[in-house]
Structures are given as structure tokens and as C-alpha cells.
Design goal:
Blueprint lengths: L2 H10 L26 E3 L3 H18 L12 H20 L2 H15 L3 E2 L5 E2 L13 E2 L3 H19 L5 H24 L3 E4 L2 E6 L4 E2 L18 E2 L2 H18 L2 H17 L1 E3 L4 E3 L28 H15 L6 H15 L37 H10 L7 H9 L2 E3 L1
Antiparallel strand pairs: 1-11, 2-3, 4-7, 5-6, 6-8, 9-10
Amino acid sequence: MNRRQFLRRLSTRALALASTSSLFLRSGKALCAAAPGAVRPLVDAATAKEWLARWEKNILAETRSRSCDKEMGEELGWLVSPMLNGFYYGHRATRDLKWLDLLVDWTDAVVKRAQKEPDGFIGWPKGDGGGNESSEYASDSLLGEAMMWRPVVLASAEILRTPALEPKYGARARGYLEIAGQIFQKWDSRDCWRPVRDGGLWVVPPFGVDRKAPEKWSAGYEQRKTGGFSNPDNKQNLIACWLIALHDATRQAVYRDRAEAWWRTMRSRMTTRENVKYYVWNYWEAGGPWDRDASGAPRHWVGVHPNGGYYEIDVEGIVTAFEHGLVFTRAEVDRLIATNRDFMWNQKVEGAKFQRIDGGAADARWANTPGVLWTALVPYDESLRKVFLATHNPGGWGGLGATPWALSTEILA
């Protein structure tokens, strides 16, 4: 299942308003909650009790999939990370250790299936690294690994700063952070990071493990410094969120610097419309010569994607940057709120719908999700909060991570 199939699955399961990035939410602490003044839970006590019961029943049923025992490549992100996010935020919301036990169980199940690759690093190769199959080689997916390891890094950091958790989980947490650091070194050493004029970005490499001779790289290895293909914005933002979690856990500046460099690139791609009231940006843009063919034309179409879920992920990254004091300011968050609330939303709480970020016609392939609620903005705006509380499905696929995130989030009273 690649990312497009995954997003289509969400649509068919009536999760348009839950949106894809409900699965990849932040630390559970809105910046506004840290400001002076009283705070209150995002979700009231009665609703929280109902949501928690429905969420727990759902996620425990989903554990039977045991995707941790079989998925590789990019599917580590789309199919394993939703569960890990649920376990991490489930512990934050309830403080019940069974969620950390599940996180350890699933993480260890993935780790033990890792394969040693020609450069000595471990990985989970499948496809071409970009969500497609390749007949010549099998490649790791930076996106899949970043998505999967982010909740593990967040949980590890919390374990190591909580004395009561140290005896049982401390050694595991330190081991997980070591593996996550090695994964970063792997992608960095494979020349997948590219400085660009406005910052930096990550590329999908043009090589992988040779299918006929697994001890060797495929032919594309020789082009590793100049070839490849830039990930689209949503993938870059998910990777940056993993990196900033690594920085929070380890305080190593390189992780923050790389995340910040991408967010500078992201900011440079955002333009305003309707007298600077709203934002709009493309799904993908060429990052360098590697993204153009011999004639100079881009190797991918450039424009607004007709599936609004991708933009919800972008906003997730932007808000994460803002909450870390990087690149984006409150004024820019407010413009994002205006875009989602005043332009995209149909102004109905019951029966809420969202149009495309550019107002374009809906594509039949994503008729239910031309635009979605940007969940990352919910702690910062009362109207969007009302839509979330009225439309969220705590027992759905999108609720695996979003429900316990909401239950563990506080906002200004």
C-alpha cells in the first residue's frame, strides 16, 4: 500500500475530517498552553470519557493486524506509525503503562527484522524508496523510517525524563535513540540531504540493494551525489518533525539545523492570495538539477494537489516549527487559520466541509477530501476547535493518534 492508496483508504472509511495528519501529531503541548494564564483540557471530561472508551476498543482491535511483524519500506510509516502514535499518546493521555509496553513490543518487532545493507547500516528495504516498486533494486524509505521512529523518539525522551519509568524502560529508550541516530547517519551518508538556495531538503536516492546481488548496491549508486528525486512537501515535513523530535531528545544541533533548513524552504514556497489574507503552495517543486530532465523541464507536475490531506500534513510541520520557535511566527499561523477557517471551510459545524486550498474544483478521486480540517491549528482557534469536537471519530482509523493527542492537550482557558 503506497501513500495514495493509504489516503484513499481514509476517504473510503469516511475520515475526511479526521485527515491523514491526525496520525502524526505533535508533542501534545500547544504553545498557547504554555503562555501565562489558566489552561483547560481541549476535550471536556464527559466527552473525554466517551472518546477514550471508543478509542481503546478500536486500537486494541487494530493491534491484531501486527503490521509491525511484516511491513517494510514506506509502509512502516503509513501502517506501523499510526499504531505507535496511538501507543505514545495513549500513555500521555492515561499514564497507563500498557501503552508503553505495546510501543516497546511493536518497536522491537520491527527492529528484529532489520537487514544489514552494503554500507553496514540497517534498513527495511522495499520498492524504490519512494512508494513505488522497482524490478532492479529494493530501497529503504526515509519517509517510512522517519514516520515510524518519531513516536518512538518522543516516547524515549519522555521515559528518560521521568524517573518512575527509568527502571523498566530506560535501557530500551536509550537503545531506540541510538538506532534513530544511526538511521539519520545512514541517510546523511548516502547523500540524500541537499542544501538549496532557501534552505535544504531530502531526496529519494537513485539506488538501492541490488535484487540479484543483495551484498551490492544497484547501478544508480554512482549517481548518489547528483541524482535522486526531491520528496514532496508533505514528506519533507514529516521527516522534519522526526528530526526536531530527535533534537528535543538528544539536544544535538544537527537535527534542529536540518529541520530548520527544510522549514525555510517550505516558507519560501508559500505565497499569499486575496490581498495577503490566505496562503497557497504547491504539492511539489523542483529542488535542484536532479529534479529536471535534459530539457530543463521538471520531472513532476507542479501545482496544488487535489487531495487536501497532503496540506494537513504540511500544516502539521509548520505548526511544529512554530512551537519550536523556528522560521514561522504567530502571524503566519494566524494566516493559516484564516485560510482554513475563512476560505476553505463551509462555515457549518455540523456537516462541515472544506474546499481546496486554491478554491479549485474537486477531483473525483478525492471527492470527499479536496480540503480538510487542519487539525494542528485546533488548539489555536475556537471555530476550528468546534469543528474538530463535532466531527472527530474517536473510534476510526484517523483517531488512533488524534484521539489520545486531543485528550492530552491543554489550551488557554
